Amino acid sequence: MIENLARLWSISLIDQLHKCGISHFYLSPGMRNAPLISALKNLQQEGRDIQVHLGIDERAMSYRALGYAKASGKIPALICTSGTALANYTPAVVEAYKSGNGMLIISADRPSELVMGDANQTIVQNDFYGKFSCCSFSFEVSALLPKYKAALRALPFAIDQIKKRHFSAHINIGFSEPLDGSACDIPSDMRELFYQTFLRPHAYCHMPQSSSASSNAVDKVLEELISKYNNPLIVIGDLPFYSPKHAVLETLQFLSRQQIPFILDVTCGVKYQFTLQDGLIPAFDHPEVIKQFELRPPDVIIHLGGRMTSKHYYQYLQNGPELDLYSVSDTHLLCDPTLSSQCHLDLNPIVFLKLLLEKCQQAISQKGYIFNPQNAHQRADFFSFIKKKRELIDNAPLTFPFVSKTIVEYSPDQTCLFLGNSTAIRSFDSYASIDSTSQLQVISNRGAAGIEGHLACAIGSQDDQSSSDRGRTVLVYGDVSALYDLNSFMLLSQLQTPMTIVIINNQCGGIFNLLPLKDMQQELELMTTPHSINFEHIAQAFSINYLRVNAKDEFIQAYKSSFLSTKHLLLEVCINDPENVELYKQLKTVRL
């Protein structure tokens, strides 16, 4: 691997990245990135623990890498050739930025003189992702002779920035030919330096990690919360999938015993482990929930984690009664669309919950109580309310709410739900149990809330070795999202564990028919992109088992049976969009 400069630099790069903890590489081949491909192959043969995931399409591979990052909390590396290749990473890079996940993009490039001269397959790749990357470096391999050490030091810095700022970094490398194994002279001092760095057991440069919010600041906020307020509402938004949830469960169980209400977004990962009896409040998408909090508002909201799925929560913050909002998150984003926070703590929400639990327990031991919400009757009101909604869903035809309700209630514990956007995730977020719990795990792409890349991302979430401890992965998304990502069905053949893919097909982008739009009937015909496609032949093309259901009992039976299958299953659920819209209208009429 030291036949020429391109190969020597490539083996140095991959060696250093692996020593910095990167083991999963997502590769879309080309000729300009051939030296990097050779480096990966050689280090694998040497016995390094390097996993190479191969795909023909950069957009699918970037979402697969993002799924790995979301599930594991680790940094994947993406490697592509020059030209439009890195542009196809852009949607996933944006989602990573908005959801607080880090990836390392490595793009091969032509030398700068060829880019300047408009050679074939060239674009300006330097700093391509702009504000969506936390740092960007561009190296010319031919100019690295005097800068070899500096370039090696830059790699740990890029990875450190990803860890600290929770979004992607970009390294662009201009490779001059030869790109194959042709031999060229390399100065002896550079060969010697290469051997010295390659044989080091650790990376060339070490970047120590620093903590965020000081303990004094956190202590002060906790004291203020407990001494100043009497009627709090706990709101938990998006939490990383890979973060341990024991502290979340323990704290919520404690708050439940103290009669303190809480709202859990579906993306926090523990929503289905609590019921109305525990103090869980249904989502703000239920109009009657908003009405109750307008009549009896909390004096403070403690918002932990990322954004909520429900836009009605933010409408309440913006238009509702005056109250204080404390927010806690540790990403580079504010996660506060209405800019309502009086106090924002840059701290891991789970760490904060542990500290909150300790502080509350101390308060009880000292004075016998903490908050005094006096909200028992408010909690009781929601039992009959949710029961009426369940009856409407059960008596209606096959609809989105029935699909989400069935999946939550019939999925075995530890099932991993990957939820698509638009109607799908909103339907799961609106679900609230009266008395039964489910230990389900949830992943989503709520950062930028795009409709693309869901299948690739769900596949990537299983690339982490620890995924073997999870149950079956079930992807639930709509027909338009599925059509947007057909090429990712090819990646299913690389998965070792079977997966269930539930496509809810209402033959249009039905979310637009659920929005309160006035005088837009003609425009809706264009916005909803109606079609008459089904997915049977697509499943056949990729050799995937397929079932189509049109009725509720068929769906229950098919979904339950999918967990007995040792193969991938594409389950197409055909619903009538006007019937689905009608049910949503009826659900809004239910009153307490």
In short:
With 592 residues, this protein is α/β, with parallel strands linked by helices. The protein is built from 22 helices and 17 strands. It is 41% helix and 15% strand.
Characteristic key phrases:
6-stranded parallel beta sheet, 3 domains, 592 residues, single chain, 22 helices, alpha/beta, Rossmann fold, 17 strands
Structure, described:
This protein is α/β, with parallel strands linked by helices and 592 residues long. It folds into three domains: 5-199, Rossmann fold (3-Layer(aba) Sandwich), CATH 3.40.50.970; 215-374, TPP-binding domain (Rossmann fold, 3-Layer(aba) Sandwich), CATH 3.40.50.1220; 380-587, Thiamin diphosphate (ThDP)-binding fold, Pyr/PP domains (Rossmann fold), CATH 3.40.50. It has 22 helices and 17 strands. The chain has helices at 5-19, 34-46, 58-72, 90-99, 112-116, 148-165, 188-199, 215-228, 246-257, 287-295, 311-319, 349-367, 376-395, 400-410, 423-430, 454-460, 479-484, 511-514, 521-527, 536-541, 552-562, 577-587, and strands at 24-27, 51-54, 77-80, 104-109, 133-140, 168-174, 232-236, 262-264, 300-304, 324-329, 343-346, 416-419, 441-444, 473-478, 499-505, 545-549, 569-574. Strand 9, helix 11 and strand 10 (324-329) form a beta-alpha-beta unit.
CATH topology value of the largest domain:
Rossmann fold
Summarize the biggest pleated sheet: 6 strands, parallel
Strands, count:
17
Model regions low in confidence, pLDDT < 50 over at least 5 residues: none
**What share of the residues lie within helices?**
40-55%
Structural class: alpha/beta
What is the typical, i.e. mean, pLDDT? 91
Whole-number radius of gyration?
26 Å
Number of discrete helical segments? 22
Strand order of the largest sheet: 2-1-3-4-6-5
Q: What shape does the CA trace take?
A: globular
